[in-house]
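Structure tokens please, single chain.
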Amino acid sequence: MGLKIIKNIKKYLYWRLNRYLLEQNNNKLRYNIMSKEETIKKIIQGYSISRYGDGEFSLTFKKKGINFQDYDESISEKLRFILKSNLPKHLVAIPSALIKIEDLTKGDAYYWSKYYLQLKKKLDIVLSKNKIYYDSLITRFYMPYIEKNKNIDCIKKLIDYFENKDILILEGENTRFGLGNSLLKNSKSISRILLPSKNSYSKYNIVLKEVTENISKDTLILAALGPTATILAYDLCEKGYQAIDIGHLDIEYEWYLMGATEKVDIAYKSVNEVTGLINKNIEDENLKKEYESQIIKKYCKG
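Here you go.
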């Protein structure tokens, strides 16, 4: 019990210090991060986006992996390169929680306060004070916020953007992005390429070749593959595609639809933060047929 109290006191002190610094307008001395609204606006204009969260940052400046991606020096090098890049029609996104915490739940405000204050020196090495970044938390639009529905109008604009488009989803096994909900309801077509849920970067060159040789550049690409998606979005943009590193948007949307107040499991979808990387069956036969009909390639073995 004593250890738990000490940990809670430390979290509180990080939060108080971070809040004080932000109230002193020190966010202006941190990073220039555009709002969710501006981020979505750019995507609707045809920009690709590579998003960074704590996992991507870990691979950027730590020589160890995260729970679904082992460390690889080439990943680290590419992630560092993209952070400094200025590719036309491409956005580099980092968490707005690094400069704004007042609208976050206590748990998220504590987490990001501690994260920033502990890792400030490392973040300042890989990030630029002068670069314009966009908000990587567009895909975490629901659960981290006190006011759960504050971002939904913004996200609905993104959903509208998916309408009447041919969409290719690059995802891990059991991710099943957009399956069974209205996120992609009015898209023209949906196809999927499946990669391993863990260490998807092992198939990076294969999937990049597959897309560039066989997929039309009119296709909108949604990548839900952790750090692999961050890099793919950049490389595919460079080759003339619009690619969105889409992350947890589907899971957050599921939580929004059910009015969840805490992270819960979703039937037939991988929810890494709740149940980890496990195989799940699709019990609904019609939904299963729909999903299987969308899969054009599988690169899931070793």
